[in-house]
Amino acid sequence: MFVSSRVKLVIFDVDGTLVTTKSGATFRKTADDWQWLPGRLEGLQELDRRGVKLAIATNQGGVAFGYFSHAAIVSELYKLADEAHIPLVMWCETHPKASIDEYRVESPRRKPGPGMLNEIIEQGRLLHMGRCVLFIGSRTCRIAVPFVKIGYNLVAICVSGGDSATGLTSSNGYVNLRHRPILVYDP
Q1: Residue 10 to residue 4: CA distance in whole angstroms
Q2: Whether the predicted pLDDT of 89 surpasses 90
Q3: H/E element holding 49?
Q4: What span, in angstroms and rounded, lies between the C-alpha atoms of 35 and 38?
Q5: Which of 29, 48, 43, 17 has the alpha carbon at shortest distance from 162?
Q6: What is the pLDDT of residue 53?
Q7: Is residue 4 part of a domain?
Q8: What is the mean pLDDT of the chain?
């Protein structure tokens, strides 16, 4: 995996980006219903060896609908993060249409809002490192606009067919790689 040396932080979504379900379902049936997509773990390990800061920002609405518990999904997210040496993990369990009242919230942390991404940058003390951030997810087109509004140079890369994409720009672009390996070239 090649990422420009100007990229100091790569934030990944989880489901549909790094992992897929073992069950073959679109969404997890249980918290442990996941397996690595081909080449993803090796790519993450290579970025880690090169000193690129890695993080996860993932919506986990399955908790909000009672499909699995908070404790179960947190345990699985940390298993995934530990295996890939990802030190920063953020998740949002709320959903505006949740079936469990306490999770029925319009939260700025829930993507496409920039809340989790801001938290990662602040926790990682990355503000002094420049403002070049790469977000890789399955529905990144929804992320680009709010993230750019908070002042970062965001390149959002769509790795599955969740959104249509037309190209790449320096401030709010995206590339649709469908199910191909993650590959970002230095311009």
Answers
A1: 11
A2: yes
A3: helix 40-49
A4: 9
A5: 17
A6: 86
A7: no
A8: 75
CA distance 108 to 57: 13
Q: Tell me the CATH number at 13.
A: 3.40.50.1000
For residue 185, is it within any domain?
no
Count up the domains in the chain and report the number.
1
Residue 187 in any domain: the answer is no
User: What pLDDT is stored for residue 50 in this prediction?
Assistant: 82
Give CA separation, 100 vs 49, 58, 64, 94, 95, in Å. Answer: 41, 19, 6, 9, 9
**For residue 31, what are the domain limits?**
9-176
183: pLDDT strictly greater than 60:
no
Q: For residue 17, how many C-alpha atoms fall within 13 Å in the half-sphere facing its CB?
A: 26
Least confident of 27-31, 44-48, 168-172: 168-172
Torsion of the alpha carbons at 89, 95, 98 and 103, rounded to the nearest 10: 60
- Whether 3 maps to a domain, the answer reads no
Quote the tokens at residue 164. 């249509």
Structure confidence at residue 18 (pLDDT): 92
| Tokens standing for residue 42 | 């090796």
> Under DSSP, is residue 137 helix (H, G, I), strand (E, B) or coil?
strand
Dist. CA 151–CA 164, nearest whole Å: 24
φ, ψ at 115 (rounded to 5°)? -55, -55
Q: How far apart are CA 147 and CA 150, in angstroms?
A: 5
